[in-house]
Design goal:
The protein is 42% helix and 25% strand. The chain has 302 residues and is α/β, with parallel strands linked by helices. The chain folds into three domains: 85 residues, Winged helix-like DNA-binding domain superfamily/Winged helix DNA-binding domain (Arc Repressor Mutant, subunit A), CATH 1.10.10; 95 residues, D-Maltodextrin-Binding Protein, domain 2 (3-Layer(aba) Sandwich), CATH 3.40.190; 104 residues, D-Maltodextrin-Binding Protein, domain 2, CATH 3.40.190. The longest helix has 28 residues. It is elongated, with a radius of gyration of 26 Å.
């Protein structure tokens, strides 16, 4: 008996709650589905389902096998989808969400190349720093700059960006140059409203020790370009990603502070709702972005 068919029948029975419902879902007879599950149990030497006249329930072994079987069936679906997508031509609309500043600086120059490569795909791009709900709002893909942690979304990392504390030479000449994170509490700070830690900035010393300082914001802004502009106008110290300030640092218009300490590094991810049945247009876009950011031009690490 085909192991794949046995697993498919078993999962279908659990999801449908009955052998009849599973048979309808699979387009098989009830007898065939029953035989598949029975042969699976016999081969495993374990009972997976408790059967009564009124209901079905999973045994402990059944619970364990169900989780593994679902993973394996999903992996097969994903592999088949990927192979099919290699020979198909992408078409249709792609709804994309991305952060405003990153979208303007680093994504906008790419869209023409993608559109030229895939002429049957239309792009609907929204730039916003708020976190959208991909499923509820109907997005195919979003670019997010964060540490995803336990996110339920599927993601693929495109690049990374280092947060940099910096200020203009004129501001530092007038107010002094902080050498330790604690000194930031005495300086004018231009804060980013969407920063998850609020006014608390965390740095790490060379030995890995974390240092947290509560800053005093003179200017709040919900946009990184505004924070950068204020820093270039000598208004205070910012903590912004190097994809935004790399050129200012190279020119000397902004100066990185406290080089012995490092702020966090964030991942830049393409996120999407599910691997299962991933449309070819979305897969092509993800692959395109991975290749485009293989060598980020903003990398200021040293």
């Amino acid at each position: 008996m085909d192991k794949f068919q046995e697993m498919s029948s078993f999962v279908a029975v659990v999801e449908a709650g009955s052998f009849v419902g599973a048979a309808d879902a699979l387009g098989l007879s009830k007898a065939a589905v029953s035989r598949h599950v029975a042969e699976l149990e016999q081969r495993l030497g374990a009972r997976l389902l408790q059967r009564t006249t009124r209901r079905l329930s999973l045994t402990d072994d059944g619970q364990l096998f169900l989780a593994r079987a679902k993973d394996m069936l999903a992996a097969v679906d994903e592999a088949e989808s990927e192979i099919r997508s290699r020979s198909g031509e992408p078409s249709g609309r792609l709804r994309i969400n991305a952060p405003l500043t990153f979208g303007v600086l680093h994504l906008a120059p790419l869209w023409g190349r993608f559109a030229q490569a895939y002429p049957k795909v239309s792009l609907d791009i929204e730039l916003s720093d708020r976190v959208v709900d991909l499923v509820e709002e109907g997005y195919d893909l979003a670019v997010r700059i964060t540490n995803l942690g336990n996110s339920q979304l599927v993601s693929r990392q495109l690049a990374s960006t280092r947060m940099v504390a910096c200020a203009s030479p004129q501001y530092l000449a007038e107010h002094g140059t902080p050498a330790q994170p604690a000194e930031l509490a005495q300086h004018n700070v231009i804060s980013y409203s969407y920063w998850s830690a609020g006014n608390e900035w965390t740095f790490h010393a060379a030995d890995g020790t974390a240092v947290v300082v509560r800053t005093r914001a003179r200017i709040h802004a919900n946009n990184g370009d505004t924070c950068r502009a204020a820093a270039l106008d000598h208004q205070g110290i910012i903590l912004q990603p190097d994809f935004l300030v790399a050129e200012d640092l190279r020119r000397g218009d902004l100066v990185e502070l406290m080089p012995a300490y490092r702020a966090m590094t964030l991942g830049i991810h393409a996120v999407y709702p599910s691997r299962k049945h991933l449309p070819i247009k979305t897969r092509r876009l993800i692959d395109f972005l991975v290749e485009a950011f293989a060598r980020p031009r903003w990398n200021t690490a040293h």
